[in-house]
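step 3/5: co-fold with hydroxy diiron-OXO moiety
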Amino acid sequence: MNTNRLSKTITAALNAQMTKEAHASQIYLSYGAWASSQGFGGIANFLFRHANEERNHMMKILEYILKRGAEVEVTSIPAPPENPVNLLSCFEKIFLHEVDNTKGIYKVAKISHEEEDWATWNFMQWFVKEQIEEETLIMNLLDKMKIAGGEKMSSNELYSFDRDLESASDEVRPAQDVTTMKP
Ligand code: OFO
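step 4/5: write tokens
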């Protein structure tokens, strides 16, 4: 008896999105390492925490695929892009990565809607909401940086920006605590 509750198309789309979340995690990880090497310990900390968050998203999709009786396909992750040239470009690049990830999520949501797979459509709504929060978070940081002078931020501004991110709230929870019911 076949107990798989996901179509081939939706399984492929979910697996692709799972890899995209893993890629997002690698991007945050590599930018975090870059920030740390530039002396921005607070920003590095923020980016490392976010790398964990993206990994949790990857796990959330993996668990969902398994829960629906379909097959998980773990593939290689594309390498992160080159390091940013400065802090402003770091957050601009992050914003563009988030927008790209949002597009991936919309794609899965669209397919689930077309297939009338309401379980997956409902599952994807958590990600739709999460992307709004993430885009807003980065947008706000970009606004702060622009107000503080953008590329020409003074060392004082850079210092307080770095310090602010060090103490920003940390909502990352270990992957094993994150479930579909308790995201
Ligand atoms: Fe997975 O939330 Fe950002 O990209």
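step 5/5: annotate
The chain is about 70% helix and 0% strand.
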